[in-house]
Design brief:
alpha/beta; about 50% helix; two-stranded parallel sheet; 10 strands; 24 helices
Length: about 550
């Protein structure tokens, strides 16, 4: 391992001098438990990198004895790059991981203990097949069993439930106890009893119908939880795992093998955690195991309870409150108050909104807006405008008009941004801007299976499958196929075809008539000066489709495509 050089010391000193007093306090506090309350744009990543450098400069700690846990892969990469600029090559020896990649390394370094040599991550198609098999084998007496409609309707819910149970390290028994407790308390919960006299009911009487419906939902949840161990056994039978499993395996290993746990407790003398507010229960349990060896561990967490963006995964402000409760006055608290990203108006407006939260780590005395500290932004004084619309369509129209006006004033589109929660919210807006010939650049993951071209391909394959299974059963698919861009047949011609088929079906002698049969019996139009051959007549399309059905039996899927 290359030592930290004199130039690294200079780099650190130069960067340290640029910090504000609160940031310096965070970087300098290298011993004992430390919690930094850091809002957006306050330089969280920088202080983490500088604190690691400070530990290496102030102590004789080996870089490999420092563990830095981030929430995302991008966060780990950014942390490594910043540290590299400060201390150089020793940065590669510092253990910088996401929680999942750390657990994966623990497993890979102890394969003999875990016995997972033959395991592989489960693929998307494999996972779908596994859930289908799970649902197919659900007891006929289970409330989860569906006999009509989409029998796999609950697949997404089951997947979300099982993932949540793994993230929070909840056992089925724990979950079932919580359900029982919830049902016992139901008659006195808000919304399940009458607050005042209503018809024949007195104030305080239970709402029988509301309780019945809620009980049905809880029994449905109970049935779903009971499938959790079944699913895990099926995964084990296939020698497959997903990322959530890795943390549970390491937690179980640390609980059962004290020597393994001691190895990691003694190895990591300093532990740093970024985005602490977004850690789940299983991730917190992992931290508890790693730090339990020390009465006052060198644990440094950075978080902001006001931006717990993953609260839907049960990550919440409670993590930070519990840490304060655990170490009390022995916990060093630092609050970063200078924001280098936003204007004063933005920060004041954001604080006015977030101050209404009932669960926060900031005391009433310290609850002040972040300070706008970037000198390049001090001259900007545009105040945020809150606009309300009757519906999403009106909102899209107004935003499109505003963007059009800005572009008309000569402002480059590169200077205009629309921030939104998910891509579905801006579909209307994007269509309107494209109609105005205003270029739009969005960054999104594209599912090729949802592209119209691919959907048409899949529809043709589904039609071939239907017709080879039950002849003349794919008329609905065929009707949609004929309207695709693959077949340049006029929509009116398709409409006439369907009308003709329906007329034949109404005849007692032709009740098995179909669009496919009508197309096959059609005549080829005679080409002339006014009707040149197009290769897209009903008869010609029929020949292509019949050929596909013919070769499908002797072809692989790839060959058929």
């Amino acid at each position: 391992m290359q030592p930290v050089t004199f130039s690294a010391t200079e780099n650190f000193s130069r960067q340290f001098e640029k910090l504000n007093p609160e940031q310096r306090a965070a970087v300098a506090a290298i011993e004992g438990p430390v919690m930094v309350n850091a809002g957006p744009g306050t330089g969280k990543t920088q202080i983490l990198a500088l604190r690691i450098a400070n530990i290496l400069l102030q102590t004789d700690t080996h870089p490999g004895n420092i563990l830095c846990l981030t929430y995302t892969d991008n966060g780990a990469i950014e942390m490594r790059n910043r540290l590299l600029k400060i201390i150089g090559p020793p940065a590669y020896s510092v253990k910088i991981h996401t929680f999942h990649s750390f657990c994966n390394e623990v497993i890979q370094d102890n394969l003999s203990f875990f016995g997972k040599q033959s395991l592989a991550p489960i693929g998307d198609l494999e996972e779908i097949g596994l859930y289908h098999e799970l649902i197919d084998n659900i007891s006929t007496e289970s409330p989860l069993r569906r006999y009509r409609g989409d029998i796999y309707y609950d697949m997404g819910r089951l997947k979300h439930l099982f993932s949540l149970m793994k993230k929070e390290a909840w056992t089925p028994d724990h979950f079932l106890e919580r359900i029982d407790s919830y049902l016992r308390e139901l008659p006195v919960k808000e919304g399940f009893f009458y607050k005042r006299k209503y018809k024949e009911f007195k104030a305080g009487d239970p709402k029988t119908e509301a309780i019945r419906k809620e009980t049905e939902q809880m029994e449905l949840l109970r049935a779903a939880v009971s499938q959790y161990p079944v699913y895990n056994n099926m995964m084990g039978g296939l020698s497959r795992y997903n990322f959530d499993d890795m943390i549970l395996w390491v937690l179980e290993a640390f609980e059962k093998n004290r020597n393994l746990l001691l190895d990691y407790q003694e190895k990591f003398l300093y532990i740093l955690v970024d985005e602490f507010q977004d850690t789940s229960r299983s991730q917190n349990l992992l931290l508890n195991y790693l730090t339990a060896y020390w009465e006052l561990p060198n644990l440094f967490v950075v978080g902001d309870a006001d931006q717990s963006i993953f609260s839907f995964q049960d990550a919440s402000v409670e993590n930070m409150l519990e840490l304060r409760k655990k170490y009390g006055e022995q916990l060093t608290l630092v609050s970063l108050v200078n924001n280098y990203r936003s204007t004063k108006n933005i920060l004041t407006t954001a604080h006015g909104l977030i101050s209404r939260n009932t669960v926060r780590t900031v005391s009433a005395v310290d609850d002040q807006p972040l300070e706008a500290a970037n000198p390049l932004l001090r001259e900007l004084s545009v105040a945020p405008v809150i606009a309300m619309y009757a519906n999403s369509g009106q909102e899209a129209i107004d935003v499109a008009i505003q963007i059009g006006q800005l572009v008309g004033q000569g402002i480059s589109g590169k200077e205009i941004a629309v921030i939104y929660r998910n891509h579905n919210q801006v579909a209307e807006l994007q269509a309107m801007l494209e109609e105005k010939h205003i270029p739009v650049n969005t960054r999104r993951r594209m599912d090729i299976l949802q592209l119209p071209f691919i959907e048409n391909i899949i529809r043709i394959l589904a039609w071939i499958s239907a017709e080879t299974t039950a002849p003349y059963s794919g008329d609905e698919l065929l009707f949609k196929m004929l309207h695709s861009g693959f077949f340049r047949i006029p929509p009116i011609a398709v409409a006439r075809l369907v009308i003709a088929v329906n007329a034949r079906k109404n005849s007692p002698k032709e009740n098995a008539y179909s669009v496919r049969r009508m197309m096959e019996e059609a005549t080829v139009p005679v080409p002339d000066l006014f009707n040149p051959p197009t290769g897209q007549s009903v008869k010609e399309i029929s020949r292509v489709l019949e050929e596909l059905i013919s070769v499908s039996g002797d072809s692989t899927l790839q060959q058929l495509l």
